[in-house]
Amino acid sequence: MLKLQGIAVSPGVTIGEALVLDSEGFRIPRRFVERSAVDTELERLANAVAETAREIERNRDAIRAELGEQYAAIFDAHLAMLHDERLQGELTSAVRDKNWWPEYAVSRTLRRYAKVFQSLDNHIAQRAHDIYDIEKSLLRNLLGQRRETLAAISQPVIVLAHNLTPSETANLDRRFVKGFATELGGPGSHTAIVAEGLEIPAVVGLGPFLADVSGGEPVILDGQQGVVILQPDEETIARYKLELEAARTVAAKLDTLRDLPAETLDGERIQLTGNIEFPSEAEQCLSRGCDGIGLYRTEFLYLTSRREPTEEDHFAAYSAVVQSMHGKPVVIRTLDLGADKMRTETTPEEERNPCLGLRSIRLSLRQLPMFRTQLRAILRASALGDVRVLFPLVSTIVELRQARLVLADVMEDLAEHGIAFNPKMPVGMMVETPAAVMMLDAFIKEVDFVSIGTNDLIQYTLAVDRGNKEVADLYNACDPAVLRLLSRSLDVAREAGVPANVCGQMSGSVMYTQLLLGLGLRQLSVPPSAIPEVKQACRSVSVADCREIAARALQMDSAREVKAFLRDQMRRRLSETVG
Amino acid sequence: MTTPETVSREVVVGIEQGLHARPADLVAREARKWQSRIELVAERQRADGKSILDLLTLAAESGTRLVVEATGPDAREAVEAIGGLFDRNFTEQT
């Protein structure tokens, strides 16, 4: 039995068979192919070569356009190496005559060349990098084809991989994929968000472990604790089975809350909305009894396809959500991605600090045609229900005004063409930088609502990248600095009579419910899976008590103290839900 | 032509950076135009003239003397064409 600790990104416990996806960088085992499969394997190899060639050509064309012919020539050399007759002959013969697995043939053969180059005592030694590049690309393409089998899974499995891209995650078949665990990845990554959206239990950031497991072995995955257990013993399996049973009982109990409002013991009605990423999640929110969609993230439209989404792509997704909500509010957030994640034609120079770089509203304001396309679709959807638009990462008033100007311009355009939209569509901004909090009294006069994104606010306030293991422990929602910024934001919004909502992970954790209500929050936007639990939490407390808790928490000067206090308060009042 | 003919001539690597990827690619491309087996021979090593990878393993620096050797029906033309590349120092053909 081997117990691994990773980062919990999507809750749920699951027991199942392992499906191991090899991946690049992973040691390629010496494997052989069946004689009868030689032709199919050779075809797979040929496809990988062709795909790799296309990749090199694409790079070459991009570099040529940007830097000129001289720099593009190196890619011609790559192509020549890839298509080298001798190399191709060696690869083919390795598969056909030695019956090597194509992955193994590629790795062995190319590494041999790389080694020869490395041993040379002149500049040719650098060509070894080119060979490794080609090897990597070929392997990725070979393994990528195997990964397509992900879509063809027909029995329950737990997927174990080096890494899963957001789109691979998005395409997992929920009927069969009972959970997944990856060596790479961190909290808040898109893969994590998607896993949560699909409600697939997931653990990421486990570090290298794929060498210790084979396909078909039993695996236990605990998405709550971030634990993966390989080759579990009988006793452990039995214990987890009991836990699964207990979780089902709690879920059944929470299910009875569906038609009850999120109302505190002293009669304060809380707006409880869902955070979604995919249109299908709107249904999950409704079935758990939500008051609307408080955050509809739209990044997936940009990430799942190779081309930029069209206005119709946007509109199809938005209108599906708006219609399924039957008049309940839907807050659509415009693109909140870094330029580094976009497949734009003009890739900007590598950013040293993407979190502080060209992203979100900054990117939208630079890429106006793309921004306008999205705004047109949001506006068109506003004719179908209660749609509100939300701008992410606003840090200066100029950005807010510019974004509103573009919106006004798009409205004019639609009006001219007689296309229906809501001219009074509410406009809001994310409050997720200390700058936005400090200047909120100015911003608040120019918005209809604000949404506090605690994930980014914590990161920017505490100067911590929570994907960085070395400092991740400094990332703490309980930090007094964060509490003060939250308190201030909610005070400013209340005084101005502008609705405020919190949509970070903080709002989805019942540990913070009392604190947030006590600070004056009346709208919580949470992942669909957290709706019942948070609703139960709201129904178990009184605002009067919450105020007291918040006041005491604000007096504390360390995150540790706050955390211990909040945890204690949660246990005291919410013991039933939390168990 | 039934008996394959072997033709050879000496060339000197004139490029400052030696026979690096781009010129090696040009040699291989040219060599592949001909039916003959073509090899570049260095002091201790022979390389397949049609393979950029193999040519690179020669690690021929500037000033290195190599022998271009072709065997086959069009050996003479092949050697002439490849020799020409070295003579022109791999500048654009006219």
Describe it for me?
The complex is a heterodimer of chains A (579) and B (94). An eight-stranded mixed beta sheet of chain A has the order 1-8-7-3-4-5-6-2. Chain A has an eight-stranded parallel beta sheet with strand order 15-14-13-12-11-10-9-16. Chain A starts with a strand and ends with a helix. Chain A has 579 residues and is α/β, with parallel strands linked by helices. In chain A, helix 1 runs antiparallel to helix 2, helix 3 packs across helix 4 and helix 4 packs antiparallel against helix 5. In chain A, 49% of the residues lie in helices and 13% in strands. Chain A has three domains: 109 residues, Glucose Oxidase, domain 1, CATH 3.50.30.10; 114 residues, Orthogonal Bundle (Enzyme I, Chain A, domain 2), CATH 1.10.274; 323 residues, Phosphoenolpyruvate-binding domains (TIM Barrel, Alpha-Beta Barrel). Chain B is an alpha+beta fold. Chain B has a single domain, classed as Histidine-containing Protein, Chain: A. In chain B, strands 1-4-2-3 form a four-stranded antiparallel beta sheet. Chain B is globular. Chains A and B meet through helix 2, helix 3 and helix 4 of A and helix 1 and helix 2 of B.
